[in-house]
Amino acid sequence: MTPPRHGYAPGDEPGTEIRPAADGETAGRHAVEAPVDVPEPVTAPEPAASAGVPAAPAARSLLGPAEIRDLAEMLGVNPTKKLGQNFVIDGNTVRRIVKVATVSPGDTVLEVGPGLGSLTLGLLEIGAAVVAVEIDDRLAEQLPLTVELMHPGAPLTVIRNDALKITELPGDPSRLVANLPYNVSVPVLLYLLEHFVSIRSGVVMVQAEVGERLAAPPGSKVYGSPSVKAAWYGAFRTAGKVSRQVFWPVPGVDSILVAFERSAQPLESEELRRATFALVDAAFQQRRKMLRQSLSLVLGDSSTATEVMTRAGIDPTERGEQLTVEDFLAIARAQLAGR
């Protein structure tokens, strides 16, 4: 069976799958769902409460704990630890994420999983335009109302769709800033980087173990297929942990910010990317074996794998965690040249 091209190779998954949902995320938010049209701009009628938005203090530009709870109650969203539903309720954390992402006025930012809108409002507060991808109909319908109340006329586009199925985005967003759904954070991140070359940088909040793996260097204990695949697109680094206390309810896992900058030029062609990722998946599926063994199914057999790696200048007795993305690319080049 061909390993998945994105995400974790079998045996390389993080040890825990419980996650805080993206701000306001409900269970199953990234199940397959047919694309639907982007809603027309919505202006919340007066009074605010009649528009289905809990009234907020006039000077507020971000949601606080009370507004988050009121919105969740109004929409029938009952966050539970069992379902991994956790909402960001701290404005300082929102502003910290926006600052780390170096968002500037006039930027067009892609946000995945906006939920109740905590981070969305933080991005709009700085003067950015936001393209928000939300799969949950209730949350997608509510978000423009919340934004119109807190930031009237702010440039927001809501796309009701699965982030793993979108094929085009309005405005060519240059940054990705998101509290990614933790159970699909790596596949979503890699999918967006593959399909939307306008995204040059960003900051994502993910499960701490996943974030450390994304940014891990070769030779690290947590270095794995996500590390190599992320490096294909650019430079990734951790940018600080996030306290569990900024979520409601308090989650059972730690969170971390991961910042990235895309490389100025693509590392190689799409054909070589696919070939490289197949090698990466095979190497980390059997990470304790030498590469001449773990890559034998992809390259033909152990003897052929040894020959290909020797041509590439890679020691066949090495293991996957010792190779850089450039090393895997060299093997892919040798593999394709020998066909």
TrEMBL record:
**Main subcellular location of this protein, as a coarse class:** cytoplasm
Q: PROSITE patterns per the record?
A: RRNA_A_DIMETH (PS01131), SAM_RNA_A_N6_MT (PS51689)
**EC annotation?**
2.1.1.182
The UniProt entry's coiled-coil ranges are: none
Q: Which UniProt keywords apply?
A: Cytoplasm, Methyltransferase, RNA-binding, rRNA processing, S-adenosyl-L-methionine, Transferase
Give any GO molecular function from the UniProt entry: 16S rRNA (adenine(1518)-N(6)/adenine(1519)-N(6))-dimethyltransferase activity
Sequence ranges of Low complexity compositional bias:
33-55
Which SUPFAM superfamilies did the record assign?
S-adenosyl-L-methionine-dependent methyltransferases
Superkingdom to which the source organism belongs: Bacteria
Composition skew (Basic and acidic residues), residue ranges: 20-32
Q: Does the keyword DNA damage apply?
A: no
Pfam families per UniProt: RrnaAD (PF00398)
Q: Which residues form the Ribosomal RNA adenine methylase transferase N-terminal domain?
A: 93-264
InterPro entries found in the cross-reference section: KsgA/Erm (IPR001737), rRNA_Ade_diMease-like_C (IPR023165), rRNA_Ade_Mease_Trfase_CS (IPR020596), rRNA_Ade_methylase_Trfase_N (IPR020598), rRNA_adenine_dimethylase (IPR011530), SAM-dependent_MTases_sf (IPR029063)
> Binding positions for S-adenosyl-L-methionine?
N86, V88, G113, E134, D162, N179
The record ties this protein, via NCBIfam families, to: ksgA (TIGR00755)
This protein is called Ribosomal RNA small subunit methyltransferase A
Q: Which organism is it from?
A: Cryobacterium breve
**Taxonomic classification:** Bacteria, Bacillati, Actinomycetota, Actinomycetes, Micrococcales
Gene of this entry = rsmA
